[in-house]
Amino acid sequence: MADVLDAGAVRVELGGLDGWSGDPACIGRSVELPGFRDAIAVVDRVAVVAEELDHHPDIDIRWRTVTFRCVTHSVGGVTRRDIELARRIDEIVRGAA
Ligand SMILES: C[C@H](O)[C@H](O)[C@H]1CNC2=NC(N)=NC(=O)C2=N1
């Protein structure tokens, strides 16, 4: 679970996600919501999931655009835990659209 994925594996996993890009160092996605409160609501839902998974994205909030970056800090690269977190973020974003 803690192994850093290689470039090929990251590419394959990105194909199963919505709007994510990246490489073995980090994967990320930006989302534009209707307004600032919607952006914060998405971040708040992601916070619940992150606590549940005990795995936390790096989050940048700029007005109504939220950028999520997922990397397993303890090993310095993208692992299956980041892919799972990204998948859960996609579910939340789909529900907010
Ligand atoms: C103790 C706890 O499991 C760790 O500190 C977790 C918490 N959330 C984390 N999130 C991320 N993205 N990387 C980590 O290495 C990490 N470590």
UniProtKB/TrEMBL annotation:
Q: Which lineage ranks, top first, belong to the organism behind this chain?
A: Bacteria, Bacillati, Actinomycetota, Actinomycetes, Micromonosporales
Q: Which family does it belong to?
A: Belongs to the pterin-4-alpha-carbinolamine dehydratase family.
Record's catalysed reaction(s): (4aS,6R)-4a-hydroxy-L-erythro-5,6,7,8-tetrahydrobiopterin = (6R)-L-erythro-6,7-dihydrobiopterin + H2O
Kindly report, in one word, the top-level EC class recorded for this enzyme. Answer: lyase
What organism is listed for this UniProt entry? Answer: Plantactinospora sonchi
Q: Which InterPro entries match?
A: PCD_sf (IPR036428), Pterin_deHydtase (IPR001533)
Q: Name one GO molecular function term.
A: 4-alpha-hydroxytetrahydrobiopterin dehydratase activity
Do you know which Pfam families this protein is assigned to? Pterin_4a
Keyword Lyase in record = yes
Q: Which UniProt keywords apply?
A: Lyase
Q: Which stretches are annotated as coiled coil?
A: none
List the protein's name: Putative pterin-4-alpha-carbinolamine dehydratase
